[in-house]
Design goal:
Blueprint (H helix, E strand, L loop, with lengths): L3 E5 L4 H12 L3 E6 L2 H15 L3 E5 L8 H12 L4 E4 L15 H28 L2 E6 L12 H21 L4 E8 L2 E2 L13 E2 H13 L4 E4 L1 H11 L4 H11 L2
Parallel strand pairs: 1-2, 1-4, 2-3, 4-5, 5-6, 6-9, 7-8
This protein binds NADP nicotinamide-adenine-dinucleotide phosphate.
């Protein structure tokens, strides 16, 4: 019998690519997002192509109180759950001092509260089963804050830190925790993603992520090159030099 994985935000981009990658390896899937029409089409295609079981549910992680019911419904459809991937996320551009917090609120509510609600619901299931593996899709912006996207960068830094604390807390419960930090991946998350440096296709990113998940890695950067060495180098750059460089190149 194949293993069972639940993925939020599976209607496009990285989540959809992860669903394809897991299905190709024989995993049964529980898929969640707001656009259930897209999930249904994907589900039938993956069932036909790989003979796996795919269940779907509508989920809006901004409505955090609804998250446990959606995750539980997928778990009931699948049986014991091996892996839950908290992938659903959004970006938002806002200049500091603009006086309107709506973008930042939506980003924090989705990327942090929505992700935490997903991870918490999964942890309840994993504790009852006695095993499980939590996966969160953070970002390299957790390490390199992006001007104009302060909420996004800090939401991802918070998710990374939150999950690294969860790993320490849950180690004795046999619950693994993997935090994945993508660089630039070609998806619909923001316009013109293909113009970003070192961008890779979602399917290529998903294959690397799946390998890291199966190896139960703890903190992963995808793609590793050039972002892993860049992370090390940036940690050595003094704040004054970083501010000078970013100010020079920022529009
Ligand atoms: N692409 C990149 O370069 C990149 C880099 C670093 C990190 N990431 C992270 O990767 C994750 C996936 O992003 P992506 O690039 O694949 O973007 P995407 O193609 O826009 O996919 C985002 C997914 O999240 C879902 N989603 C958004 N808001 C939701 C909500 N309130 N409730 C439930 N689902 C919601 C969307 O589904 P519905 O709209 O159907 O609900 C969609 O399936 C995000 O967490 C993002 O921050 C992406």
């Amino acid at each position: 019998m194949g293993k069972n994985v639940i993925i939020t935000g599976a209607s496009s981009g990285i989540g959809e690519a992860l669903a394809r990658a897991f299905a190709a390896k024989g995993y049964n899937l529980g898929l969640a997002a707001r656009r259930t029409d897209k999930l249904e089409v994907l589900a039938r295609a993956l069932e036909d192509a790989h003979g796996v079981k795919v269940v779907v549910t509508a989920l809006d992680v901004q409505q955090d109180e609804t998250v446990p019911d959606a995750i539980n419904a997928l778990a009931q459809g699948l049986g014991p759950v091996d892996i839950v991937v908290a992938n659903a996320g959004i970006t938002g551009v806002r200049r500091s001092g603009s006086g309107d917090l709506s973008v930042d609120k939506a980003v924090f509510q989705t990327n942090i509260i929505g992700a935490v609600a997903t991870l918490d619901a999964a942890t309840r299931i994993f504790k009852a089963q006695g095993f499980g593996h939590l996966v969160g899709i953070s970002s390299v912006s957790a390490f390199f804050p992006i001007p104009g996207s302060a909420a996004y960068s800090s939401s991802k830094a918070a998710l990374t830190n939150y999950m690294n604390a969860m790993r320490l807390e849950l180690a004795k419960k046999k619950i693994a925790v993997t935090v994945i930090h993508p660089g630039f991946i070609k998806t619909d998350i923001a316009p013109g993603m293909d113009k970003y440096p070192f961008v890779i296709e979602a399917d290529a990113a998903a294959k690397q992520m799946l390998a890291a998940i199966e190896a139960k890695k703890t903190n992963v950067i995808v793609p590793a090159m050039p972002w892993k060495p860049v992370k090390g180098l940036i940690s050595l750059v003094p704040d004054s030099l970083m501010t000078m460089l970013v100010t020079r190149f920022m529009k």
